[in-house]
Amino acid sequence: MLIHYASLTELLDALTHTKAQTLSRFELSEADLDKTYAEGKWTVRQLLHHLADAETVLYDRIRRIIANPGQVIWAFEQDLWAEHLQYETLPLEINRQIYASVRDAVILLARTHYEQKGFHPFVHNETGSRTLKEEFEKIAWHNVHHLNQIEQAVSSE
Prior knowledge:
This protein is mainly alpha-helical and 157 residues long. 66% of the residues lie in helices and 6% in strands. Helix 1 (8-25) runs antiparallel to helix 5, helix 3 packs parallel to helix 5 and helix 3 packs antiparallel against helix 6.
């Protein structure tokens, strides 16, 4: 379930706060990075790689919606990304840098387009009609969702 923000300021605060929280998780110990929040679920390491990859995908989507509203945007198969991009052995530092810089770009685009072009529509091939505003909100929600999983994993014995 997406989080709906009452204002641009609230969204920007969420994006900034989750960025700081997420970046701190890249500094966890190797033992914590190998933990999982439930049997058969991704490890913290995999979740961090996924957050970086999803951030780039969602950033691309919002740029497409801003530049060319109304288009169809395709989902990505996150499990295939994890497998074929080798999340288990991929260096975290690279994706930490990618996540940080792409989040900065998302924040910039939110500042300049969330209110002005938030009504711009697009069609997601799996979930149907949505707006640019909803996609910005999805970025924040998605990050919170996975941070909760990371916290659950790290706090487990």
